[in-house]
Amino acid sequence: MTSIRSWAALASVGLAVSAATVATGVPAAASSSGRAMLSGSLTPSSERSKPQGHVASGSQVSFDLVLNLRDAAGAQAVVKAVSDPGSAQYRHYLNDAQWVARYAPTQASVASAETWLRQQGFKVGQVPSDRLFIPAQGSALQVESAFGTTLSYYSVKGHNVRLANSSLSIPTSISGAVSGVVGV
Question: pTM to 2 decimals?
Answer without folding.
Answer: 0.80
